């Protein structure tokens, strides 16, 4: 039988032990990927503080509860009434004031940190690289406008503009992203950047952050390789707003590189192959076809591309159509014209005719290459047995 005078010390010791245990459990359960930006440190400090508070509160409540169940359970044969107690002013004041101080403290901390992370003036003074980001159903496009001053060594200088399907950023340089959506609500999110921003149609939102780790260093920190899939592998832009059937596949690659290598890397990334098949494969990823059309026969929001070329396809009105060049072009430019049985109208982007025409014009102007993107895609489809 434990003496009553020992109850409180025992409870306190148990609270400390289970609080510490709970803290490490939380850290283990909610592991974040290795950070890639300067801004991660203060954000992580806040996460840690939250975990400490959560673990402490959890221990306080459960230890008292479980200890009371054991220590104060009814003795055999004891039918008497419980002892009457009338509150405890000190405890009541404490459990009102303490949480209040904590919550207000966190609010002040949070607002100040948020103000730091969104301080446009301070970030602008550090000569950021500017990238225009467009989210759409279901992918991302990144425009790198010509910017900076060749005579100003501090500014980030790009002689001409680029349009790429991945996010390329130089290490150690503030990144300024202007975000907008082509259709509906999306949200820009890179877990390793610790930031998230809603992406809205007809509205421009700007975020700043400072990558300080290259992809290579990131993979080493994560103990991962470029082939690893999911969160641990190559960092990715994700969409954090449920935006329809292929929301989960709304991905783009992130590449943080040394600033000295930057130009060479985006030059290479923007090169257009002279081989239609290679281009077709490139458009498949760049225009986010992958979000809906699998290559392995699995079902998506759209029919799989495995064996798509030249097969008999049953339409929703019961007719059978051969998927030849003409049909495929019509289905890419005007997806609702003929609907494959079992699929829904209006899911696929209906602006590819215009988007492709613009891209073809840019390619012609920049490389002198006359391409037909639908032909390229069909070349690619033919290889997908
Ligand atoms: Cu876009 Cu989810």
What does this structure look like?
This protein is α+β, with helices and mostly antiparallel strands and 385 residues long. It contains 10 helices and 12 strands. The strands form 3 sheets. The chain has a 5-stranded mixed beta sheet. A hairpin with a 5-residue loop joins strand 11 (312-314) and strand 12 (320-322). Helix 1 packs across helix 2 (40-71) and helix 7 (276-286) packs across helix 10 (373-382). The longest helix is centred in the N-terminal third of the chain and has 32 residues, at 40-71. The protein is elongated and about 90 Å long. Bound molecules: dinuclear copper ion (CUA).
Brief sketch in words of this structure:
The chain is α+β, with helices and mostly antiparallel strands. The protein has ten helices and twelve strands.
- Uncertain regions spanning at least 5 consecutive residues: none
Distance between the amino and carboxyl termini: 77 Å
Mean pLDDT reading: 89
- Biggest sheet strand order reads 3-2-1-5-8
Backbone shape: elongated
The helix content is 40-55%
The largest pleated sheet is described as: 5 strands, mixed
Radius of gyration: 29 Å
Number of H/I helices: 10
What is the H/E order? HHHHEEEEEEEEHEEHHEEHHH
Structural classification: alpha+beta
Strand fraction equals 15-25%
The kinds of small molecule bound in this structure are:
dinuclear copper ion
Number of strands: 12
